[in-house]
Amino acid sequence: MLTIHRGSGTATLARALGALLATPLPDPFAKEVVVVPAKGVERWLAQRLSHRLGSGPRGADGVCAGVEFLRPRSLVSLLTGTEHTDPWLPDRLAWPVLSVVDASLGEAWAAPIARHLGDDLAGVERELRQARRYGLARRLAGLFASYGVQRPTLLTAWREGRDDDVPADLAWQPELWRRVVADIGAPPPDERHLATCSALRDDPDACALPDRLILFGHTRLPVTEVELLAAVAETRQVHLFLPQVSGALWDALRPVVAEGPVPRADDTSARHARHPLLATLGRDAREVQRQLATVSAVEAVAEADPPGDHLLGWLQADLRADQAPADRGDRQLRADDRSVQVHACHGAIRQVEVLRDVLLGLLDDDLTLEPRDILVMCPDVEAFAPLVHAAFGAVPDDHPARQLRVSMADRGLATTNALLAIAAQLVGLVDGRARATDVLDLLAATPVRRRFRLADDDLETVARWVATSGVRWGLDGDHRRHHGLSLAENTWRFGLDRIVSGVAMPEEQVLLGSTLPLDDVGSSDLELAGRLAEALARVQAAVDALAAAATASEWSEALRVHVTSLTATDYDDAWQASQLDHELSRVAADSGGATLTVADVRRLLEDRTAPRPTRSNFRTGTLTVSTLVPMRSVPHRVVCLLGMDADTFPRSITVDGDDVLARAPLTGERDARAEDRQLLLDAVMSARDALVITYAGMSEHSGQDKPPAIPVGELLDALDATAAEPVRDRVVTRQPLQPHDERLLDAAAPATFDPAALAAASAARAPQPAQPFLPHPVSAPDPDLTLDDLRRFLTNPARALLDHLEIALPFDVDPPSNDIPISPSALEKWAVGDQVVNAVLAGSSPDAVLSAELHRGALPPGDLGAAALREIATSAQQVVTKALQHRTDNPVTTDVTLDLGDGRRLTGRVPDLHGDTLLRVTYSRLGAKHALTTWLDLLALQASEPGFDVRGVVVAKDRLGIIKPVDPDLARSTLAAWAAARHDGLQGLCHLPLETGRAWALGRGNRSTAWKNAMKKWQWDRFRAERDDPAWTHFLGRQADLSRLTDLGTLAETVWRDLVPFEQGWFVR
Prior knowledge:
Layout: E1 2-7, H1 10-21, E2 32-35, H2 39-50, E3 67-70, H3 72-80, H4 90-104, H5 111-116, H6 123-130, H7 133-150, H8 152-159, H9 172-184, H10 189-202, E4 212-216, H11 223-233, E5 237-243, H12 247-257, H13 276-281, H14 283-292, E6 298-301, H15 311-321, E7 340-346, H16 347-365, E8 374-377, H17 381-393, E9 406-408, H18 413-416, H19 418-431, H20 436-444, H21 446-452, H22 456-469, H23 477-481, H24 492-504, H25 526-548, H26 552-566, H27 574-591, H28 598-608, E10 623-626, E11 636-641, H29 660-663, H30 672-686, E12 687-698, H31 710-720, H32 728-731, E13 732-734, H33 755-765, E14 784-786, H34 787-795, H35 797-804, H36 826-841, H37 846-854, H38 862-884, E15 892-901, E16 904-914, E17 917-921, H39 928-944, E18 951-955, E19 960-963, H40 968-985, H41 994-1001, H42 1007-1020, H43 1030-1036, H44 1048-1056, H45 1059-1063
Parallel strand pairs: 1-5, 1-6, 2-3, 2-4, 4-5, 7-12, 7-13, 8-10, 8-11, 9-10, 11-12, 14-16, 17-18
Antiparallel strand pairs: 15-16, 16-17, 18-19
């Protein structure tokens, strides 16, 4: 006998189930079998039943024992006797489908499949389409499995040759199904289903079920499960505990659904729902009633607890009674009613921050509320999981969120198991480019780091080596050939050879064979270079082995061996290796020797590592975050829906064009978007005290308004009509962009629990007294200074002050490039030219220098690189030629020691004095920095040797600059003035940016001209505006106006006054 227990919530159904189970089975050793839709429901139900079963006199301290929980698929497998060997499960069925497809591509009926797989094509296009093989087979296996569960009569007709009703473009499916059935040789699902139903009716002992079978919490039942339950019910007690939001609607629909399943287009049940949410969100619940209408059953109604006297409770009462919302004068919303909260936020990060504050507020307001009473559900857990971890775990110790333990459910295996993620990365390297960043990411994975003892500093060093050695992509030349390129330059082998040879010898433009040693590797790096070489050798071995694999078994074994060789796990993570072995063993066992391509394996791993619910992460006493499915209908005091954005909910499911059922669906057949809507309705009914919804209501970039998900909008419409007056403005909160917005202080209590955000908001609102430029007195610099000290100050006073204050600014590190250089940028050309000029002037052979540059990896390979180098070499040679005109064979380095007065002493060394010429050579264009630093060295020489006239010569790429000899007294006074300016500038910011100061001085006393010149350098230059320098931005803020440099004119006169007249004589040679 089948008994349908109806109730508006699972809590009331659980009480009824507890009462039923309190009466034991006749066989004391038999286990009760309870079928639940999801693992989260199982965990909650087991805990709930423990309050009734086996409890003592005081109650609530019992135990749920002797109960076996099954999933619907497990029940079907039990009834059909295929618990471990069902060949019709999609993952197993994919392999015979793949085999039949491969064998049939040349036949006429399979022409659509052949076209899809590019069987009539050649070259790259064929290869790309052939990569769809396993993906196509797995998709078709899923469709066939769906047909067998939801419409078995379709498969029966196909098997019997009756396929006239199939659309013409899908006419290949029946023949494919018949051949797959013949290939497997086992009874197909439809035949097995009929046989099982018949056996259950004729032979009660045909399956190992107890006298009582229970199904709990289902909101959708396919036709095959209904027929199996009907068959079991003829010889056993079957109890179906069915959550139905509205008993009134159930009663009203009896005559409407009595005929059973119909084409969905003909279903009129929604018209009979008076409450709009039951009509728009409750289709799954109506269709399950239609599925059960043709089965003989006894009904029992589980009485529900009365809902609360608040907005959420009023909505739930209307839904239970199927009462159309209308203005209710007796429902005056209290000022403190926060039972329904909808928060419109700027993006995902802000949603999580708002949710954190809302939950902390609820916990603070009600001391009886505990984290286990709160459920957070999210349509896209994978996207929000790292944000949740950061918001609740990566906060300071004084933040109250540190006290909350958060557990994440439904994560993908690739997220929770690093070894499976590494397996996927290795597969990606086989037909991928093995880019610099790809392999660095692999080396940074925790198990790989543990295997090769790579600390954070080691990874930074390796990344620097990769960038400077010229690694771009490809393991070696052979690996690149798969991509139509056989060059060895800029591969990992090329870079590794440079790194390893760099341990043995410096660069010095000397080739070791065809390898230029990397100059950035010291003898202390020998061990790290060895570990890197070993890691790359194992990566190469893994890629070679995987590339040689053909069958699924070979792929599985190769992955198992080489993931093991590349990784090491600690005691806590040892389970990851077992799980990897289990998943790969399943693939090998199910595949039947099928041949797979790299793309097939990639798709297979994606399927195996997709997000899945796990029982252990539910109801553990922590705040649980999961998708909407596992905990559907499970009551909690607070239910939160996170990320209910218009573009993610309901799921944007593209209808499969090959799905026969989707062409003309029947009621009761699965529809993911309708399921999501039902999930929202279930969430509304399962919240007892509060329902909290967050969504992206504004763009985090532009602030433009964005609508909520359509079902959320429908919920808001219903809420507007639930109370005495519209409540949307009370329910919806538009959150500010930043967590420290001072508007958060406008309420009676601050709307944030973040101490740092609260302090920032309070500070923003408080009157701002004038603040000293520096928060505390700065120690005076040492009166003794070096030429380098003075040079650093003059070229960037803001940076010098930061160094004196021991402040290090954050900076972005550019990741290694993945692109082979094709057309060098101006900066790359400069780097090569500068290297050539310095090396030739240092005495290296020009030919050796140019050969070294071709092997450095910074230039394009082959003829492109040779052409680029010729251009650079021509320009560099011109600079060298000019420089040689002013050089002597024996340049001198002069030590300088000067007493500047006021207790200051200047010391340093001035190199490259060639006779009476102080020579400076640069491959750059002549600029203010070259002029000022050369002038500084010239002043130091003239002041220290008064009787020796020295001129300064700067040979640059674009011109030759000459600074005439300087009077020694002028030199000494200028140096003293600069030293004094530095002394003051290290205790308060010196307003003299290098280029801007020189531009001002070039105005030569004309303030209008000086201002215009300075503006060009400070803020008008699109590419190199000096105000954008991070050091100046730190002190003056972003986009600082030139007027902020209050002492610019005076300081420019001090530094540049005497140099500018000498500089005016500069000319091009």
